Amino acid sequence: MTNRFALGLVLAPLVVLGACSQEAETSDDTLVIYSSRHYDSDYALYEAFTDATGVEVEVVEADGDLLIERVKADGDSNPPDVIITVDSGRLWKADQEGLFASTSSDILNQRVPASMRHPDGHWYGISSRARVLVYAKDRVQASELTGYESLADPKFGGRVCARSSGNIYNISLLSALIARWGEGRAQDWASKVAGNFARDPQGGDSDQIRALVAGECDLALVNHYYYARMALDTNEDVSNVEVYWPEADPGVHVNISGAGVAANARHPELAKKFIEFAVSDEAQKLFPELTSEYPAVPTVTYDNAVLDALGAFKADPLDGTTIGSRQEEAQRLFDRAGWP
Fold it and tell me: I want to staple 211 with a disulfide (CB 3.0 to 4.6 A). Which of 34, 44, 121, 216 is the partner?
């Protein structure tokens, strides 16, 4: 099923929902994108690319790991030109499946930091989300917090909320902590955090924030943009919620959304042109301004009052490929830790 639809005030060009089984008819001059993202920023990006180039964009959407399976299942019948997915873990999985082609681009190498791109050009970061702590201001003082280690501090026993261990954001964070601390310390941390839970993990990051607001917990682990989006939503009250940057060396863990040219792309040069456009100043502004994510290009300026209020932070320079390669090890540690 092919259709045009709007989210908010943004029109998405030729979007094909990933749940639909009917194949879309694709013209020779149409760029086909398979994406696990479903945000206003992305639909605005597609429209801006079409406006700039005259090239129509067709998007097939599927959530998380289902996107990888969709790409494999469709094969050469309706191959993507570009694959976009969220988090280093899923980028690594897609790369392990051989879904990306190697791309050489001076523009991409100059604009995207080394930690946010594959060393052989298989994928490039287009936006990021910081994995942060949020706390109830009336029950926790910032001076009590030191970093991700705080989640394991005995004084927060029965006071911590977090998502399940199977969540890709948590798996990638633990992968980074294994690289940072070593397996033994990372295992001990995960076990102690699980012992501090106020409730069994449930829901998404927004649900952890709402639980904090409701007094079910005092400290939670979330991606920053969930807080930022709620802070901009007049239907949400996060006035008692504060963000803490766990910057202890080497810095805050960052989740990457990335795009790569598909291995069987029909239009590889056009696909590269799209990714280069996605890291232009014009396109990069869309991610903070419409989705409250951070741009991949650090020099880009934007208008987002909540992100401005959060201020600058030091990001962990660990590269996404290293984080992705430790996914299985991280899941084993979670399982041994008893983190549901």
Answer: 216
